[in-house]
Design brief:
alpha/beta, TIM Barrel, nine-stranded mixed beta sheet, 9 strands
Length: 212
C-alpha cells in the first residue's frame, strides 16, 4: 500500500487547542474541494508516492510527540486512514485535519478529528457532510474560517447543533481579510463559547512559507 504525500516535516502546531506544541505534519496530496481562500493549493497535485512503511520511518525519524495528518484531504486515502488509526492505537497522539466533506466515522476513537466546516466564503459550503456534527467524539474539534458576516451566521447555525462545552469550536479570521479584533468583538458581543483561533505559523514565519 502507498500514500500520495506532499510533504512531511516537524514544526509548531499553528491551530486548534493544540496550537503552540511541537508537531510532526504529514501533508497528503489531493483534495476534493477547491476553496476560494485555500492556502495549500500546492497540495492539490504532485508530491510523491510512498509506502506506508516509508511514511512511518520518516515520522519516527522526526521524533516523538504530536502527529497531524492534513492535506489536501487526508481521509480520501484509505491507507492513510489505516496508518492514522494504527499510530493512535499504538499510543501516539494523532490529529487529523479534515475538510468537513468526508465521514469521520472511519477514524479510530483514539484519533482526534479537527473538522473544518466550510462557510459561504469558501464556495464549498454545500459540500459539507453535516452528519459529521453528530459523529463528533468527545475529543474532536471543529474549525470555522470566517471571512465575512455571512460565514459567522452560517457558523452560528451549525453550532446550534453542537455542545461546545464538549467539542471545542475554533473560530479563525480569514487571514488578510478579516481582522482578528473584529472577529473577537463579534464573539464577545454574542457571548459565544468558542476559541479564537489565530494561525500561529503565519505570524511566526512568512504567511506563504512551506514546511513550517
Amino acid at each position: 500500500m502507498s500514500l500520495h504525500v506532499c510533504e512531511i516535516f516537524r514544526s509548531i502546531q499553528g491551530e486548534s487547542s493544540f496550537a503552540g506544541w511541537p508537531c510532526i505534519f504529514v501533508r497528503l496530496t489531493g483534495c476534493n474541494l477547491r476553496c476560494r481562500y485555500c492556502d495549500t493549493t500546492y497540495a492539490y497535485t504532485g508530491g510523491e508516492s510512498l509506502s506506508v512503511r516509508a511514511v512511518l520511518e520518516r515520522v519516527e525519524a522526526l521524533g516523538d510527540g504530536l502527529i497531524e495528518f492534513t492535506g489536501g484531504e487526508p481521509l480520501l486515502q484509505e491507507p492513510a486512514v489505516e496508518l492514522m488509526n494504527a499510530l493512535a492505537r499504538s499510543g501516539r497522539s494523532v490529529l487529523v485535519e479534515t475538510n468537513g466533506s468526508q465521514d469521520i466515522s472511519v477514524l479510530a476513537d483514539e484519533v482526534i478529528a479537527i473538522v473544518d466546516m466550510k462557510g459561504p466564503s469558501s464556495g464549498e459550503s454545500e459540500k459539507m457532510d453535516l452528519a459529521n456534527l453528530e459523529r463528533l467524539r468527545a475529543k474532536d474539534e471543529l474549525k470555522f474560517v470566517i471571512g465575512a458576516r455571512a460565514d459567522y451566521a452560517h457558523m452560528l447555525a451549525l453550532l446550534a447543533h453542537v455542545d461546545t462545552q464538549r467539542n471545542t469550536a475554533n473560530v479563525s479570521p480569514l487571514f488578510g481579510t478579516l481582522a482578528p479584533a473584529e472577529l473577537a468583538a463579534w464573539m464577545l458581543a454574542d457571548g459565544l463559547y468558542a476559541r479564537l483561533n489565530l494561525q500561529q505559523h503565519k505570524y511566526i514565519w512568512q504567511p506563504d512559507a512551506r514546511g513550517v
